[in-house]
TrEMBL record, chain B:
Pfam families: ThiS. SUPFAM superfamilies: MoaD/ThiS (SSF54285). This is MoaD/ThiS family protein. Gene3D superfamilies: 3.10.20.30. It comes from Umezawaea endophytica. InterPro entries: Beta-grasp_dom_sf, MoaD_arc-typ, Mopterin_synth/thiamin_S_b, Sulfur_Carrier/Prot_Modifier, ThiS/MoaD-like. PANTHER family: SULFUR CARRIER PROTEIN CYSO, SULFUR CARRIER PROTEIN SLR0821-RELATED.
Amino acid sequence: MLVIRRDLVEAMVAHARRDHPDEACGQIAGPEGSDRPERFVPMLNAERSPTFYRFDATEQLKVHREMERNDEVPVVVYHSHTATEPYPSRTDISYAQEPDAHYVLISTRDPEEHELRSYRIVDGVVTEEPVQVVESYMFAHTGVDDTPDGS
Amino acid sequence: MAITVSIPTILRTHTGGQKSVEAAGTTLAQVIDDLEANHGGLKSRLVKEGTLHRFVNVYVNDEDVRFSGGLDAAVKDGDNVTILPAVAGG
């Protein structure tokens, strides 16, 4: 299950809407081992395409170094589908290389109502998981430490 | 001094869980061969048909090697090689 704060969901959806009809992509960093998404990191789609996305390699390295310094990992990797359902495409599955990440897909095919779903993708096997949207992690059981997030 | 290579989570099965390992060589291709000698299985995850696999990004210090010669990119002692999974899809 993905437990995620509402403001982070809203940030992903806003990014997807802003870049529509191109695909938007990004990640949400969280403390290593916590499985708790905390820091929203929208990424450039180097492809600027309605059917494909790729993190800009230079930006990806910069963000990777920041995350290493902070002892963070990409807890969520998200991207949008702008004309199809929010289900991982064959290309999405072939590139999925973060077995510990939640892969979030947002569809902006409907101009009013977005669709958001989350998956684990491990060794080419896609498993959908429930998404629980919370106002704060303070009362949600998100990990072994359950540290209040200060909000 | 050697070359330090950062290994992404997905490839740490080949390094006994280590996040970074040391290697030697004067080009990226040599570094990858040296990695393979000590951590079997890594090369086929990085190289396909004589070029870098599209599923990985490789950097020497802060430079994406796609812009500095690919497998022929020069590497020297003290450099950091970072391997990251390409994040992409459709």
